[in-house]
Q: What sequence folds into this?
């Protein structure tokens, strides 16, 4: 008798503790793993699940969200606090590699089968009108009812009391999924598609040669999705403005899809290499030689930092240096593996993918500097001719480019300008004669319009501000605004460097 009383008290305490946790973390997701994870061996599967668990924690922490995660055999239970609105939280979860899909779940305790029915009825009352449905129950624990008992009771009650088109066990319009775990009831509300792929860092690191255009952004994304930590190597041929644009794309990709891990951004000063090529190389071979010089530098950076492969956005036949023959000649310059995920992808498909992942507007504004040295380029370069031509090249220029390469932690791109930007004022209030420039992309503006009563607001996307700011009335003062303050700080630095002193940064005082 004493033992029974003690067990009942223990169960009651556990139930109360669970209810407290549910109130603290009201957003509950049932996360389904990427199917390829499930078919791995026992040890590999467990390792990947543990990695995904840690990655979700890191990503949510990056966005200021507290969470609790419970690992199951083929899924994760993720409980989150209310520090982000539900749509934003869903968007964050959708962009974490390794998640096949996830469901919003209503979690509560229950007293009996009738209580389960009443809670289900409350949740689905407006969703069953004119639809056929069925109820599916998974149960774990000791109860005085079976899963089938619950399916019959809940299904019959809903059929009798709601205006549905009746129960249909095969291919219904709506399947109501209920999970019972001991004294906890889980009602599935909505299901969302995840990114898929492997959890980040379960595959080897790669170094993406990023130019800021359509191709390199998409190829980088594909390796993030496949579980690789993607570091970035940028060959600067267009000065500070070009570097800012490419850093924006790299930071965007990391912040949206890969923020669970630290990666590096390598900026290579490549203007001297371009000058050497223009001055000494055969004009028909310049394009292939340029790519070989890039591979030389990137390979040395990769080897020095124990990165296993290079990634490019090249596609067969897209430009003269990307014929099969020329790609073969380029590859022979290094022993480092060169991976080309877009090698047989059509340009329009690449642009469509670029738009889907959100980098299209950055890519559209990015100049293609490689094209400036293509002068009647050969499409069938011979390795012997290339090697003979490269004998004229001063390879000390390559050594210097590697030596002067600047390595930046991707997380610091948002704050690397802090010291320089001490002269750029950040304000939380707006003077009467000041105009706010909302530099967010049009999609962001449409989703969350900036409303400041009595204040003049103009929209100039960040990728256009550098070229259009000079057209504005320079007798006025302007405040740059973006949601997180990253792009506004970078663009303010650039404008200050160009001699514009009528620029400040505007932050909403939260």
A:
């Amino acid at each position: 008798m004493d033992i029974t009383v003690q067990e009942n008290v223990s169960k009651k305490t556990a139930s109360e503790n669970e209810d407290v946790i549910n109130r603290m973390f009201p957003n509950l997701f049932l996360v389904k793993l990427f199917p390829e994870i499930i078919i791995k061996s026992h040890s590999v599967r467990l390792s990947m699940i543990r990695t995904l668990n840690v990655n979700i924690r890191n990503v949510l922490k990056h966005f200021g969200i507290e969470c609790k995660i419970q690992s199951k055999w083929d899924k994760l239970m993720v409980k989150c606090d209310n520090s982000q609105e539900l749509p934003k939280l869903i968007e964050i979860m959708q962009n974490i590699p390794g998640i096949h899909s996830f469901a919003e779940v209503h979690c509560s305790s229950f007293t009996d089968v009738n209580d389960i029915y009443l809670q289900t009825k409350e949740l689905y009352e407006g969703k069953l009108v004119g639809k056929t449905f069925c109820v599916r129950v998974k149960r774990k624990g000791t109860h005085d009812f079976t899963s089938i008992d619950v399916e019959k009771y809940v299904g019959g009650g809903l059929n009798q009391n709601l205006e549905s088109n009746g129960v249909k066990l095969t291919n219904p319009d709506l399947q109501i999924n209920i999970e019972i775990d001991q004294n906890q009831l889980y009602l599935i509300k909505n299901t969302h598609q995840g990114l898929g792929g492997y959890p980040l860092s379960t595959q080897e690191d790669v170094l993406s040669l990023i130019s800021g255009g359509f191709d390199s952004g998409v190829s980088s994304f594909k390796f993030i999705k496949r579980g690789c930590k993607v570091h970035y190597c940028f060959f600067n041929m267009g000065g500070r403005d070009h570097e800012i644009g490419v850093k924006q794309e790299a930071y965007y990709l990391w912040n949206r899809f890969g923020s669970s891990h630290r990666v590096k951004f390598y900026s290579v000063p490549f203007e001297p290499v371009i000058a050497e090529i223009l001055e000494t190389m055969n004009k028909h071979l310049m394009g292939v030689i340029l790519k070989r010089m890039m591979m030389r530098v990137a390979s040395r950076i990769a080897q020095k930092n124990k990165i296993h492969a290079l990634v490019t956005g090249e596609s067969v036949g897209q430009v003269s240096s990307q014929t099969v023959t020329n790609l073969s000649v380029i590859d022979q310059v290094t022993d480092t593996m060169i991976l080309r995920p877009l090698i047989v992808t059509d340009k329009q498909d690449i642009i469509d993918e670029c738009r889907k992942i959100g980098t299209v507007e950055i890519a559209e504004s990015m100049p293609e500097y490689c094209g400036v040295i293509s002068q009647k380029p050969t499409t069938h370069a011979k390795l012997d001719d290339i090697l003979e031509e490269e004998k004229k090249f001063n390879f000390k220029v390559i050594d210097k480019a590697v030596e002067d390469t600047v390595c930046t932690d991707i997380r610091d791109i948002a704050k690397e300008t802090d010291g320089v930007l001490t002269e750029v004022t950040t304000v939380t209030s707006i003077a009467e004669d000041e105009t706010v420039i909302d530099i967010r992309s049009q999609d962001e503006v449409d989703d969350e319009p900036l409303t400041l009563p009595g204040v003049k607001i103009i929209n100039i996307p960040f990728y256009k501000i550098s070229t259009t700011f000079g057209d504005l009335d320079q007798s006025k003062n302007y405040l740059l605004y973006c949601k997180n303050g990253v792009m506004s700080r970078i663009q303010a630095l650039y404008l200050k460097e160009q001699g514009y002193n009528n620029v400040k940064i505007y932050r909403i005082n939260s």
